[in-house]
Amino acid sequence: MIVTWIILFMFGEGLMASVIHPVEMADTSQEDTKITIDALYSKAHSLIYSRPDTAKELVSTMRRLGADCPESIWNIRSLNMLGIIYDVQSEYDSALYYYYRAYTAAVALNDYQEMGSSSNNIGLTHWNIGNNKDALDYFFRALDYFDKADIQHTLGNIRNNIGLLYAGLGDFERSRTNYQMAYRAFRENNDIRGLGAVLTNKGLLLLASEQPDSALYFTDRSIEYKSRVNDFYGKSISLESQGRIFLAKGIYARARESFTKSLLISQSLGYSHGIIRAQIGLAKEKIQQSKYPKALELMREALDSAKVIESDKLIYQVHEVKADIYERTHNHKEALEHFRLANHIRNESINHSQLNQVYDLELQQALKENLREIDQLSKEKEIQRLQLEGKDLEIRRKNTFLLMVVAMFALGSTVIYFFYYNYRHVQNTKLQKAIVKNKENLSRAAIEAELQERKRIGQELHDGIGQMLSVVRMNIDVLQKREDLSGNKRTELLSSAVDIVDYAFKEVRNISHNLAPAVLSEKGLGQALKTLANQINKSKQIHVRMETMDLYHVRDNVTQNTIYRAVQELVNNALKHSSASELFVQVISDAVQASIVVEDNGKGFPATELGDGNGSGLKHLCNRIENLNGNFYMDSRENRGSIFQIFIPLNYNGHENKNN
Fold first, then answer.
1. pLDDT, tens only, 541-592
2. Comparison of pLDDT for 543 and 395, the residue scoring more
3. H/E element holding 633?
4. Domains in the chain: how many in total?
5. Are strands 631-637 and 641-649 parallel, antiparallel or unpaired?
6. pTM value?
7. What's the domain range around 609?
8. 591 and 527 within one domain
9. Nearest to 578 by CA among 544, 611, 612, 547
């Protein structure tokens, strides 16, 4: 259950705080500088979430103008804004560097307002990289500082961020309470961007409660709000959330559209966190469409990026998706390895000790808020009472929590063992039945393919060679029975008979070549495939582009013949049915497996066509591949062309493939 909460809420939208307030200057020149700096700040602030690089340049200019007063409020504001820009671009180390500098400068000036802004920003960055305890500590500091400064209009940001943290821990009730407080604060201050952020997060909360339609409503509203204020950073997050909702509803085309838009916006901002989130979403959509190679490619790129920004949340999420891909493609070894890595990283990121620390901070914050309400005349006595109550509450909570953990662990272990044992038993039974059924199907398919091949050869001999020999026989009969024929007529009949016999020999050679192509045994698989492509290209009917690589790994004759026949069948299929003008064929190999890809730009065909009996050639091809323990994948849709992928292992149980 905890895993589900984390997956749903690790990608919510937090809000940074950067407070604008006036600064007094001594003389006219300083007043002019103040006006210029104020204008630069306002412009940079409006560009943070749409053009962060431009905002960074404006802040640098602002800092040069304010260089004469390094301890001024402008120095703090510019440092905070630089931190926000780096946060938007997922450069968390740089963001923390500038936030801490801003916090130190604010402490030197005893400015509670800027101390609160810096603390909130530091807390959100810690949350982004998975440090929940430090994050909540800084959020509560921010609440204290803004309370001391008697500032209310920024409380919505902090409450939204606290709600995100509790959502990630699976505490939906506290999360919902903080979101409601944030929503009211944003409404009172007419904060459009804040409303957009909290609506996205409320949508994710509804998705976790299995209410996708309501979740989609809130997400759509959040996108409208963010579009009104050109908040591209926030819009990328809302679009990614929208994509996950469409994915949950099974609307894959809309999900792909939302993830792609989120990816493009994040790339334009240099927002690595958003890029990785969108790639994860696109990979999950590709998995639903059985496009496993593309999904794996996206996850490899996402994993590299997640390691660069050192986000444990994203790293274990990517490993979970990769485990799913390898499981679906029957690569159980890789699937188990990635599942193990994901589980290890997740357990390192979220553990019970960290949860205890988070709730300890909440207890401390609750005590602080209660202390403010104590009558000043009995303050010391009330503090001692509350401290004793807090310690007693802490001891009872820890004991209760420990008992619950032990009980849940024991119960969970028992239930998991029972279900696992039952699952393994059911799966073994199904596997044995499937093996028997598969062997029967393969045997039947092999016999059927052999009968079809014999029928085809007989038909070619009857319709081609038989007809030609009949004509030759007729010419010879005429020569024998008609003695009155002229010399020219006899010569003409003999010449015709010889031409027909020559043509018959040519047909016999063609049939023989189709049965066992000589070029395959004489020149090898690579040259045979290139010869096939050249023959097709000479016909001018379709242009074939053939790529081969490292085919020397394919040594045994059965596998070579199967690969050649597979390419021949797919090329002939494209010639007869696809109406394509171009055909790309790639055959590559390594020491482990051979890979064949055939792609055309034709009209495609519906997925149900094979089931209607119109694809017997492809069915027989699929059976041949399965006989070699290979896999055959098709991706074809009407008016979009077709892609065929074949993978044949070259080393099965330590030996080269043999067709037994």
1. 889 999 999 888 888 888 888 898 889 889 988 888 888 889 999 999 998 9
2. 543
3. strand 631-637
4. 3
5. antiparallel
6. 0.47
7. 519-649
8. yes
9. 544
